[in-house]
Amino acid sequence: MSNSTLMPVPAAYPVEYNGSTLIGVSIAFTVLEVVFVLLRFIARRIGDIKLAAEDALVIPALALCIAINAVAIAMVQYAGVGYHLVTVYENDPTKVILWAKFLIAESFLYVVAVVLPKLAILCIYLRVFPTKPVFVVSYLLGAIMLASSITNLFFAGLGCIPMDYFWDKTIPGGHCVNIHALYTWASFPNIITDLAMLILPLPLIVTSILRFQSFTAIDPLQDGTWASVPLMTWTIVEPGAYLIAACLPTLRPLIVKVWTSGRRQVAFSKAAEETAASKHGEKRGSSSVLAGLGNNHDAGRGRGGGGGGGGGGGGVAVSLQSHFGRDAEYFELVEKGGG
How far apart are the C-alpha atoms of 279 and 264, rounded to whole Å? Predict the structure, then answer.
């Protein structure tokens, strides 16, 4: 296989690197996607809710999102993504071919990873709003999404004939469609369907628009290994945002349980603090009364002798029992012993 260039080698660039940004985004979204899907099924279990059609869509959507993130990391580690194209050519031209193959793989993954969580959201609409207008609009949007995905998959596989011509322009008779236009307009149907699904959170529409804008502003093939960082970043963010949005409406049982448990814990803590403070105050009060009564008792013994002292001690014990309950029983024994 020839190692010929995809595009003419651009003018020299300084040796720069921005691949760490793509790795960071890939790891962050992998964690977020896994956490939200796990929380989704935990909430289902807490609420004793049976699995529905959208749950069958979320699992493969998660697998595809993780695959996109893994490919993005592999592009940085093994295909020179993060460096300018001229730098990659100078060091290892074979990485450019590997980058092109990763780019095609990412195109297939992206198309399916975007449509599955959006179909899951439509399933939620159908279940929550079982009316004819919602049914009609949801099925229409679903049909548009599927048609768009099939079209994008077709062009991703047949954008270049033979496919090797994408990275090897020396193959006789090979030809490609406008790859720049293909990658640019692949996300445009998502903007339309997002706007149609008005209940979708605004960030989803924003991510679709930003990805579309990124491809219109940057040629993914001219200095491709450098340009892939911002382009792949939005390719990761968009399906990840759809997947998280598909999970959010299902988290209510979990949120209610956590909120209720938290409030109950706060109430218990506050009650315990108030009880402890009350007991502490009672003990301090009992000590003050005992000190005063003890002084009176000593004075009575001085005036009335041993017999009077004994009678005074009995009165103190009865008084303490009436005011301090079980705490006074101890002091009663002490007073009797002293008498």
Answer: 23
Of 240, 177, 170, nearest in space to 203 by CA: 240
Positions of the chain with pLDDT under 50: 1-9, 200-202, 302, 304-339
Can you say whether the dihedral through the CA atoms of 299, 305, 311, 313 is positive or negative?
positive
Give the global pTM: 0.67
Q: What contacts 24+ positions apart, CB below 8 Å, involve 126-134?
A: 127/52, 128/249
Beta carbons of 80 and 88 less than 8 angstroms apart: yes
Note the pLDDT tens digit of each residue in 102-113. Answer: 988 998 999 999
Q: What is the pLDDT of residues 321-337, one digit of tens each?
A: 444 444 444 444 444 44
